[in-house]
Design brief:
There is one protein chain. By secondary structure, the protein is an alpha+beta fold. Helix content is about 25%, strand content about 40%. The radius of gyration is 28 Å and the shape is flat.
C-alpha cells in the first residue's frame, strides 16, 4: 500500500512538472510573436493614424556619404547628407550616439535647397585620433525620422 501511494505521488509530481515545462515553452513562444511598433500588416486601425504614419511627406535621406571611411591623421574629413520632406526636415549630426556641435576644428554647413530639401555637411580639419567613431546623420520632420551612419577610423600616412 505504501509503495502504491509513493508511485501515485511520483506520477502526480511528474505530471505537474510536465505541465509546468509545457507552460514555460508556450510562454516563450508567445513572447517571440509579440511585435513592438507597427502591426504586422503595417496598417493602423484608425484611418487618420494610418495616413499620418504612412505619409509620403516624411523625412527621407536622399544622399549620404561613405558607409566606412579611413582617413589620414592631420587631413580633412567631410560627410554629406541631403534630405527631403514636407515640411522640410531638420538634419542633426551625432558621433557615437551623442549630438555634435560646431567648434574650432569641426564645421557644420547647411543649405536650404527647395521648400522640401536640405543639405548638410560636416568638416573636420585637421582630423585626429579622437575623430574616429560612428557618425550619424538624422533627418526628421513631423512625420518621420531617417538615419544614416558612417564608421570612421584613421590611418597614419608616412611621407
Amino acid at each position: 500500500m505504501l509503495l502504491k501511494s509513493a508511485v501515485v505521488a511520483l506520477i502526480l509530481l511528474l505530471i505537474v512538472f510536465e505541465c509546468e515545462a509545457r507552460r514555460g515553452r508556450t510562454r516563450s513562444r508567445t513572447k517571440s510573436k509579440v511585435q513592438i511598433g507597427l502591426p504586422i500588416t503595417g496598417k493602423y486601425r484608425d484611418p487618420e493614424s494610418d495616413r499620418y504614419y504612412n505619409s509620403n511627406d516624411g523625412a527621407k535621406i536622399l544622399l549620404a556619404s561613405h558607409f566606412d571611411l579611413e582617413y589620414v591623421l592631420g587631413h580633412k574629413i567631410a560627410f554629406l547628407c541631403t534630405a527631403k520632406g514636407t515640411p522640410r526636415p531638420h538634419i542633426t549630426w551625432f558621433k557615437d550616439g551623442v549630438e555634435i556641435f560646431a567648434h574650432h576644428y569641426l564645421h557644420i554647413h547647411e543649405w536650404l535647397i527647395d521648400d522640401d530639401r536640405v543639405k548638410s555637411k560636416i568638416e573636420i580639419d585637421p582630423a585626429t585620433q579622437m575623430d574616429a567613431g560612428v557618425y550619424e546623420c538624422t533627418a526628421d520632420n513631423m512625420y518621420a525620422i531617417d538615419r544614416r551612419s558612417f564608421k570612421t577610423d584613421f590611418s597614419i600616412a608616412f611621407d
